[in-house]
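Reading a protein record of the kind used here takes little practice once its layout is understood. The reader may check this reading against the record printed directly beneath this paragraph.
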Amino acid sequence: MDDIPKDQLTGALRRGSVKKHVAAIHVSGKLTLLQRKLSNVLLLNAYDTLITNQVHTIDARTLCLMIGYNSNDTDTLKASLRGLAETVAEWDMLDDQGQQEWGVSSLLSYARLKGGVCEYAYSPALAAKLNDPKVFALINLNIQRRFTSGHALALYENCYRFVRTGSTGWWSLDLFRRLMGVDESEYYAVYKHLNAKIIKPAVKEVNKTSNIVVEPEIRKQGRAVTDIRFKIKENPQLAILNIDDGAGVRRSEVYERLRALGVSDRLARQWIAEHGEDHVAEKMAYVGAQRGVKNPVGYLSVALRDDYTREAAAPAVSSERAKVLERVRDLVAARTPTQRDADRRLFLSMIEDADARADFERHGWMSALNTGAIRAFWEELEPEAFEEA
């Protein structure tokens, strides 16, 4: 095809810019919500050296903290890594010469846990596709963690990469069901069920949670629905967190301090874009004031995520309260991600005072206005939890 003059090409092959918009990697939707989040964190961690390095590493505890796993729950981490290695990524696109290219690869070529470090790799072909912003869009972690449904996050990932074109293009229902991970279900072979249980809830969460708004459209053959596409536009209320080329950010003092701490270039820029330099600097000061922190990057990740404040470590806090807060942190860390989410929702439903509720929403289990209630709540779950404290 390289020998064919352009004036003899027809249709899409003549439009060189099409390759910028047609490209897409489809990943099986059978991943759980946590596995999908794990996949995005691993990619973010590896992104700066995706092509130059064959193997990538990340501290396993940091990885767990960024995803929301219990940092000691290695079985869940192993199962999630196994799931990524068993998951297929498939692409079908025009290459730089206008030729159609189809490819398939496991999402991770291998993963290994050893000495507290997670080591992993991508196949060279997949790494090249993931590294190309025209082909694959990095998912912002601050938006990712808002999702509570794996189907909604899967829909978001598959729509977000088409935000510049305004539409996903038509997908057959068979492909869509595969992207949502329900292709082997006879129940979801019926469009009425697929629409009620998968499409509508996923669209609702994407539009409420993310920086884009999607609207489904269907195509029929007779009475049967055969294809679906999603119109996409930016959510004006949440069109935030876009990361620039990094030139300005990399000159900042906060960026240099993050890099010195061991934070990757991409993650450092993302944290600054998400939270602002002053906020990141505040959390770094908070982490620096803690004693015996063995994993400052992981601690900083959680401090930013849960908005830890210096109040929890201030000298004015009594020794007893400090011990109670420390014990609460341990209790929370010992719970599974699902349990932690349920605990938080349950406690929040029990708060009647508006100020106390707002304080818990901002500070979580470190909420100063709810210290007594928090202790009582955890004593209900663990009757002997505070004996030492």
In short: The CA atoms of residues 318 and 324 lie 10 Å apart. The chain has three domains: 1-135, 139-242, 249-381.
